[in-house]
């Protein structure tokens, strides 16, 4: 059978396939259960396609170490069997073309010193007194030695409030990403890594930035009230920091005439599932303070304020925002 594009199988069939996959993997299967499964599978072409997608997913997971493959499935924010079935169904909907990237995302940061779950904002105090806030789905390694205090951002976003190092001589505090290195100069700052690019916003003090492969280029100092972004080779222009950059530490997402599509993309970071914004309303300007941990309240705010309709499937795992 030809490969199917992601999303071309009905969500209901995918959820049923996920539930059958759970049942068939739970242990010894009775003849009655096997007969019911075969009956479901043969009852429609859609069911057969959904099951083939499920078998393909299990084949992909078999290529991972067991501690990764099943742990990657059993981390839903909601406890219980229903949440795991929904997570399996979501993976089935992503389709084979997306699984390689999903595996990379799942593995990246899995063995990190500290990580936050999807929807979680976590606060840490390091050995020197430095405070680190981890935004949703973030991971860091921390390495302190005689020469430096080093935080490696593996994925996601952090806010760092540096402490004065009591060790003499004083050790610099640095943050590393895949694109370069940042050195704090007595400061409070936010670092986010997205798709091969690092975003920096300095709230207090200053940060020295050095892209990883910038040849014969002097490190640039970014001062309080400034932000920039960079890849491994070049540093972007300096721009003013807006008030929304650290609102996530208070559980909020601030929008000031933000495109609805951009708002949806940001909110999607804080919840499991799939959210789609209809292109007809993607450019709708949206303003407000939206709670990142309360999706239902945020949806109600959007519906009450803007010409937006919300359609949900699978207990909210599939959500569509469209014109009302």
TrEMBL record:
Please state every residue range assigned to the domain named FecR N-terminal. 15-56
Return the Gene3D superfamilies for the record: 2.60.120.1440
InterPro entries, from UniProt?
Answer: FecR, FecR_N, Ferrdict_sens_TM
The segment(s) forming the FecR protein domain are 113-208
* Molecular function GO labels: sigma factor antagonist activity
Judging by the UniProt lineage, the source's domain of life is Bacteria
Q: Which named protein is this?
A: Protein FecR
Q: Which organism is it from?
A: Pseudomonas reidholzensis
From the UniProt record, report the name of the gene that encodes this protein.
fecR3
């Amino acid at each position: 059978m030809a490969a199917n594009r992601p999303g071309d199988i009905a969500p209901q069939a995918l959820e049923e396939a996920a539930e059958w996959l759970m049942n068939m993997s739970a242990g010894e299967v009775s003849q009655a259960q096997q007969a019911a499964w075969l009956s479901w599978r043969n009852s429609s072409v859609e069911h057969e396609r959904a099951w083939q997608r499920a078998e393909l997913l299990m084949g992909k997971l078999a290529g991972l170490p067991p501690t990764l493959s099943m742990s990657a499935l059993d981390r839903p924010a909601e406890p219980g069997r229903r949440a795991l079935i929904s997570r399996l169904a979501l993976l089935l909907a992503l389709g084979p073309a997306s699984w390689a990237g999903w595996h990379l995302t799942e593995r990246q940061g899995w063995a990190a010193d500290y990580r936050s779950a999807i929807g979680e904002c976590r606060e840490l105090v390091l050995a020197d007194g430095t405070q680190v806030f981890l935004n949703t789905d973030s991971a860091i390694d921390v390495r302190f030695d005689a020469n430096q205090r080093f935080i490696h951002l593996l994925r996601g976003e952090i806010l760092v409030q540096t402490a004065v190092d009591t060790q003499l001589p004083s050790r610099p505090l640095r943050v590393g990403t895949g694109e370069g290195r940042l050195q704090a100069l007595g400061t409070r700052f936010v670092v986010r890594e997205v798709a091969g690019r690092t975003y920096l916003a300095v709230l207090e003090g200053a940060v020295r930035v050095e892209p990883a492969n910038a040849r014969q280029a002097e490190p640039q100092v970014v001062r309080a009230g400034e932000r920039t972004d960079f890849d491994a080779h070049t540093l972007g222009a300096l721009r003013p920091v807006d008030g929304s950059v650290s609102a996530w530490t208070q559980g909020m997402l601030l929008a000031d005439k933000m495109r609805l599509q951009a708002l949806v993309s940001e909110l999607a970071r804080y919840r499991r599932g799939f959210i789609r914004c209809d292109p007809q309303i993607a450019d709708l300007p949206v303003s407000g303070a939206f709670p990142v941990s309360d999706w239902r309240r945020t949806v109600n705010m959007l519906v009450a304020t803007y010409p937006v309709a919300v359609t949900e499937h699978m207990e909210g795992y599939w959500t569509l925002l469209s014109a009302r």
